[in-house]
């Protein structure tokens, strides 16, 4: 069934004259739109002073941070020296190649900038971003499936998909959909359930939990995901992928953030003026 579904999909959503709009681009737009809605709704429930101008500032910063970070992360982590010989292609977004771990770093740096501009504590923005991130991951991984990229290892399971091209004619795990369900749906359900607690969980709870859950989910899925051809396995013929190597620090960082959260137990915020003062002190 999944094989039939995949082969019925066209990576190009529609074409207008010489311009083609791909599902991958639409996935980015949907991800950022959903992120804005989630951030706004949760901030309102937590009684955080977040007006439309502040939300727009945050989203613009995050869009720039995610896109640049994801591309540069791919260049550094997955380029395997290629971009040292072809530096002009570093920002060639149309040729593909984006890294979640790089996008995460870019988003955190962008969040620090937005925190300074709008006087909202960085930990609070990071928590709001963590709640919104699974939506982007879900749409992005579905787009990966449509594009027939980042496919899994060979399988004889009934839902295996023949991606063709460099993937060959063997049926493979639709690892993109596994990631959409785990990194997108599962993590969102856990974090959203936590966000409904009253009073709101302390600052750092959500970004810490997100880092731990994402690191574990990504590490597990890499066992059935084909490693990038230019890198292969980092140890021997079938041990440790770059995705697994980069996910280990996320789990460690998430645990460290949760320990900090438990020690500090800073409220998410019911006093806008006090939060602005704290944000200024962080700067």
Describe the structure.
By secondary structure, the chain is mainly alpha-helical. The protein is 63% helix and 3% strand. It has ten helices and two strands. A hairpin with a 2-residue loop joins strand 1 and strand 2 (19-22). The longest helix is centred in the N-terminal third of the chain and has 27 residues, at 52-78.
Q: How is the topology of this model organized?
A:
Layout (H helix, E strand, L loop, with lengths): L1 H6 L4 E5 L2 E4 H23 L6 H27 L3 H4 L14 H19 L3 H26 L27 H21 L9 H17 L20 H23 L7 H11 L1
Antiparallel strand pairs: 1-2
Helix pairs in contact: 2-3, 2-6, 3-5, 5-6, 6-7, 6-8, 7-8, 8-9
Offer a few descriptive terms:
283 residues; mainly alpha; two-stranded antiparallel sheet; 10 helices; globular
Class of secondary structure makeup: mainly alpha
Q: Major sheet: order of its strands?
A: 1-2
What proportion of the residues form beta strands (DSSP E)?
under 5%
> Could you describe the largest sheet, including whether it forms a barrel?
2 strands, antiparallel
Classify the helix fraction into a percent range. Answer: 55-70%
Termini gap: 54 Å
